[in-house]
Automatic annotation (TrEMBL):
Skin-specific kinase that plays a key role in glycerol metabolism, catalyzing its phosphorylation to produce sn-glycerol 3-phosphate. Involved in skin-specific regulation of sterol regulatory element-binding protein (SREBP) processing and lipid biosynthesis. Its EC number is 2.7.1.30. Pathway: Polyol metabolism; glycerol degradation via glycerol kinase pathway; sn-glycerol 3-phosphate from glycerol: step 1/1. The keyword Methyltransferase does not apply. Keywords: ATP-binding, Cytoplasm, Glycerol metabolism, Kinase, Nucleotide-binding, Transferase. It is found in: Cytoplasm. Residues 290-474 form the Carbohydrate kinase FGGY C-terminal domain. This is Glycerol kinase 5. One of its GO terms (biological process) is glycerol-3-phosphate biosynthetic process. InterPro entries: ATPase_NBD, Carb_kinase_FGGY, Carb_kinase_FGGY_CS, FGGY_C, FGGY_N, GK5. The gene is GK5. Belongs to the FGGY kinase family. GO terms for cellular component: mitochondrion.
Length: 524
């Protein structure tokens, strides 16, 4: 009968199989959400711009309530855009910007302050004080001696330890020194990076945790021992009780409270954004290299089960932990890649980012014009900033745009050379992602300079995909990493076309400009 048919349809809808995974990437500039099917195809998407707050010069914050609203909003919008029901979502994976943190009251859940961004510079004075201190010099000597006699790489990093404003430890120390409420309530204080805060909110305060990738990115977590660093916390007067338990990256963290999305969606992965992009690119083998060019530039090398000690410019991270498997990465980074290109657009050097590669190729060279990067204020020298050098009456917009794009490729070359020198693992194919990887001029020039093939995926939102992959593995939607490899879709491959020697005059001029700029400003 008609009534029986309607009843059968309702039962089928109610029992619709959970065949989709939601991957959310909470980045520095946007919160993006994609709904993926079993074939890793995007079925629905949503994006909202992250609005940073600048209450004082050098301070960068995020409103936790606004971020929470954006997170919930993009998930609902993406699922609706996919044309599916929340019941069909098998798992939720969350990728987040690293080192941005917040503290809140353990019992009430009320934040003591806004999120303090990884870009925030409020700890500059504290950083300078520590880096000049006698105590730090003593620490250098002690660990240099320990490394000499033991040969243990664990003692190498502290032997040349210097603090920076990007480190969570320094900003957290600033919080305990400058926000009286945090100090007064330190026994009831919770610390969390963005992932921990979102998990806490999603579970209505019932789950307080982070994963190994996010923990290792704070600089407070010791990757060798896989524990929060008690020595560092003691030095900085930070109580150990504030830190969350650390769980596997692909793990059942619990379910979102049904009041939020209508159903209890399982939260099956928390992961830091660069590590997530590495996983999304399927860089599973030692020697696999991932290059992300977004707001900043990040080079990551899979070092397998080997943890390489920090070297100047490179530092070790935990990529992910799944069961007994722990994968380590070595990372190097450069700042202000996407930021620089966005600035150039804002001052009308070009209308659309898509034009820039064509503009750069329309001229033979930059006519000696060099772009010296550095939009951030340095903790050690506040006069350091970005600049153009070599400007002439004949300089056009095309020359300026080409100079900016060349500076990205030159910095990629510098960092790659450090990786080759310091990482004792044969490097395999480089896989690129991030918005700037869509620029064919930068990609081809980088390939030429490093003399390696670079693959670019069809979908450059790798952080979202990586979180989805990790969540899908935990939920059983995908069985193993071999299955994930088969889902990769490559849009373009850039192979070396020019000899690196052809770029030597231009790169030498650029390097001289950078040195000259730093020298001139340091003597102001």
């Amino acid at each position: 009968t008609k009534l029986e048919c309607l009843s059968r349809v309702k039962r089928i809808q109610h029992a619709a199989p959970a065949l989709y995974v939601v991957g959310v990437d909470v980045g520095s500039t946007a919160v993006k959400c994609h709904v993926y099917d079993r074939g890793a195809a995007v079925r629905g998407s949503s994006c909202r711009k992250v609005e940073s707050l600048y209450p004082r010069p050098g301070w960068v914050e995020l409103d936790p309530e606004v971020l929470w609203s954006q997170f919930v909003g993009v998930v609902k919008e993406a699922v609706q855009a996919a044309g599916i029901h929340m019941k069909q979502v098998a798992a939720l994976g969350i990728s987040t910007q690293r080192s941005t943190f917040i503290t809140w009251h353990k019992r009430t859940g009320k934040p003591f302050h806004n999120f303090i961004s990884w870009q925030d510079l409020r700890s500059a004075e504290l950083v300078n004080s520590w880096n000049r201190s006698l105590l730090l010099k003593v620490i250098h000597v002690i660990f240099t001696v320990l490394h000499f006699f033991t040969g243990n790489d664990r003692y190498l990093a502290p032997s040349f330890l210097t603090f920076s404003t990007h480190q969570t430890s320094m900003k957290l120390s600033w919080v305990f020194k400058n926000i009286p409420e945090v100090t007064a309530k330190k026994n009831n204080c919770c610390f969390g990076t963005v992932d921990t805060w979102l998990l806490y909110r999603l579970t209505k305060g019932s789950v307080f945790a982070t994963d190994y990738s996010n923990a290792s990115s704070t600089g407070v977590f010791e990757p060798f021992t896989k524990c929060w660093n008690p020595t560092l916390c003691s030095l900085l007067s930070i109580p150990m009780s504030i830190y969350p338990p650390v769980k596997d990256t692909s793990f059942n963290f619990g379910s979102a409270d049904p009041e939020i999305f209508g159903v209890p969606i399982p939260i099956m992965a928390l992961v830091a954004d660069q590590q997530s992009a590495m996983f999304g690119e399927c860089c599973f083998q030692p020697g696999d290299v991932k290059l992300t060019m977004g707001t900043g530039g990040f080079w990551n090398v899979n070092t397998g089960g080997s943890l390489f000690a920090s070297h100047r410019g490179l530092y070790p991270l935990i990529g992910w932990k799944i069961g007994e498997e722990v994968v380590y990465l070595t990372e190097g980074s450069v700042s202000n890649i996407g930021t620089t290109i966005k600035w150039a657009q804002d001052i009308n050097l070009f209308t659309s980012v898509d034009e820039t590669a064509k503009m750069a190729r329309s001229i033979v060279d930059s006519q000696g014009v060099c772009f010296v990067p550095g939009f951030q204020v340095s903790a050690n020298n506040s006069s350091l900033c970005a600049s153009f050098m070599g400007l002439k009456p004949t300089t056009t917009r095309n020359h300026l745009v080409r100079a900016i794009l060349e500076s990205v490729a030159f910095r990629n070359k510098q960092l790659f050379d450090i990786i080759v020198k310091k990482v004792r693992i044969p490097l395999r194919t480089v896989r690129a992602d991030g918005g700037v990887s869509n620029n064919s001029f930068v990609m081809q020039m980088t390939s030429d300079l490093i003399n390696k093939k670079i693959e670019k995926p069809s979908n450059t939102d790798m952080s979202s995909l990586g979180a989805a992959f990790l969540a899908g593995l935990a939920s059983g939607l995908w069985t193993d990493k071999e299955q994930l490899k088969k889902l990769r879709r490559i849009e373009a491959v850039f192979e070396p076309q020019k000899d690196v020697k052809e770029y030597k005059p231009a790169m030498d001029t650029w390097m001289q400009a950078v040195k000259s700029d730093v020298y001139n400003r340091s003597n102001l």
